Amino acid sequence: MRNFFLIFILLSGLTQVTLAQSGLRNSESDSLLAARSRAREEAQVKKGSYSAKTTRFTYEENFKFNNIVFTNPDTIPDDLHHFTDLSKGGHLIQNLGNMGTAHRSLFFEPSKNIGRTSGYNVYNQFYTSPEQIKYYDTRSPFTDVSAAFGGGGRARTNVTFALNDTVHFNIGFNFNSIRSDKQLAFLTRGDNQVKSNDYNIFGFLRPKKLPKYLLLFNLTQFNHEVDEQGGIIDPNLENNPDTTFFGYQDANVILEDAMSSDRRGGFHIYQQYDLDSIFQVYHSLDFQEQITRYYDIYDRTDSDSLIYNEVDGQTTDTIAQRNTFREFVNEFGLKGRTKKFSYTAFYRNRLLSFDEFLADTKRTETEHYIGGTLRQQITPKIFLTASGEFLFGGGYFAEGKFTSDIFDATYSRISNRPSFLVSQFNGQQRQWNNSFDNQISDNIRGEIKLDFGKFRFRPSLRFNRIANYTYFNEDRVAAQNSNDLVLLSPGFELDWQISKKWLWKNTFYYNTVSGDAANTFRIPEFISQSQLAYRNMLFGGKMMFHGGVDLHMRSSYFGLGYDPTIQQFHLQNDFENDGFAKLDIFLNFKVQTVMIFARSNHLNQSLGLFGYQGYFITPFFTGNRQTLDIGVRWSFFD
């Protein structure tokens, strides 16, 4: 607690000093947004056409922290072919080789939620949470549809619609769907491994007769079902010399009918009222529910014995686990802004419950928070931000952020309470009851922005020092190491504009793990990504073209294994993922508002150089084999 206050006071002090130097200015309230919107709408009516320039969106946090920034929809076809989880994540993630499967970052990503969570996070990537909702400001009905069809029966669909009745009211919806056939051990196409639907309704209201009031609202729903396969059976355990890890359709997998799911949803509102030009009050209310399940009927006389332990002398049994996590959150705050300074101070209350079906137990807790944010615009391109949050009873977050056009840096110190899952679990296969301490991390990220003519160079550094690192060990049981874990990842981005139409982009990370707890974290020593692309306007400027090659490489390492029964990645020391290189060729082009892509994924697999057959993304789970992927995106602005 003392450390939290010292850090927050220091960070706040830096901002306050800068504030004192600049002095308070006359305020610019959000009411000016309405005036700007009216002026833009009048100009558009005179012009008579609608496009991406007349459609824009922002996020709730921009209202909450008085940093109103709008963004127009992306209309450039570059990198449209990045539709899989691996490529969307910059090849810095780990999954089970198929789209929609369990997902984690290769890097340590500290959670800013310092209180209790459920602990079930591997499907977070596929859920659009309330803070990720985009709130649109459109001059006309806006529709954006994209569909990608990957070889091997993988499909991803995204639909967005938004409509402004006037500048005072907007409503819209998002629908995101994933359908992925099994990539291993399937008989025919249409045999889904992943079925995922994520949808939400959102909007805002700024009453004409009450212009100082703003309401944002959203409803979210998410249902994610995965047919768990448990991984490929090690060929060394089978009496068939022709069996390999790279049989794909003919692979032998451990599990046949196991199923896990993650269902979430809730409602969220945010409302604010301008008291005067400097002071505003706000309130947010949020209810979220998460239900996770795992179900299987197993027989330990076959390959199921590689996953399941014997329970009460039974060789066959049914495992049916279900956990329900609910949170009801109220936050009240005061905020305001001047021309170059903004502030937010709040109190938050969380009512939590976690219900384990097998144990027939329900744990409830109440959490109280206070916190705030100070943001100072030192010059038009230099910003300094200090944020802090304190959880009574344990837990804090403090962050300082400096941004400019030549250098960005962020430091944070975070003390996270243990999740419900790692604290206590009463599963059919494993049980634990732990009294873990808070996980405490110091985190630094920095980047220098250098441009030399045709070269764009961005050297960067990621640093984490973690005490009480919480993880799942080789026995697939929650564990904590009180020693220090130190992660250091220097890297860079280097872009070379070879000519007007040719661009070569490179990203590289060198990762080291040290400290007395170094054996609890795994990451490849080298990760790199390169793209050589040709970009041009064809047919008299009617078609925008972007095509080239992507090359991803990573070094060998003992990657984390995956246990579907608890939906967690865990340590293992028996299987080393070989280093690999994956080559893709792609074409992206755009005609008017229609964008289309085609990609030959994992092209180098067919070459078979040096006996190369494929790669592992997780121990006993191969990455996608060579496929042809296509997709389209179409935007309508009226």
UniProtKB/TrEMBL annotation:
<feature type="signal peptide">
    <location>
        <begin position="1"/>
        <end position="20"/>
    </location>
</feature>
<dbReference type="Pfam" id="PF14121">
    <property type="entry name" value="Porin_10"/>
</dbReference>
<dbReference type="InterPro" id="IPR025631">
    <property type="entry name" value="Porin_10"/>
</dbReference>
<keyword id="KW-0732">Signal</keyword>
<protein>
    <recommendedName>
        <fullName>Porin</fullName>
    </recommendedName>
</protein>
